[in-house]
Design brief:
The protein is mainly α. The protein is 80% helix and 0% strand. It is built from 4 helices and no strands. It is elongated and about 60 Å long.
Length: 79
């Protein structure tokens, strides 16, 4: 199995979207492929970091306001 497909399986497994067979193929591949083991480890760290972060996202109204301001600024630049 090519590493690119295994990496997709890794992503799916991490978000509980992988089938039982995909999990078996993934684990077999990880036994033999150091690069994919590293990808899996780094991917897990990234997911855990994002889950544990205390990010505050902008609300929809604030985002729309920023878009309007950006559009206005771009129109002023092009004029």
């Amino acid at each position: 199995m090519p590493c690119e497909k295994v990496n997709i399986m890794c992503d799916k497994a991490q978000y509980c979207e992988a089938t039982f067979w995909e999990k078996i193929v993934l684990n077999l591949h990880l036994v033999f492929c150091k690069a994919c083991r590293k990808y899996t480890k780094n991917n897990s760290k990234l997911t855990e970091t994002v889950k544990n972060s205390k990010l505050n996202c902008l609300d929809k109204a604030c985002k729309e306001n920023m878009k309007k301001e950006l559009k206005k600024a771009m129109e002023e630049q092009s004029a």
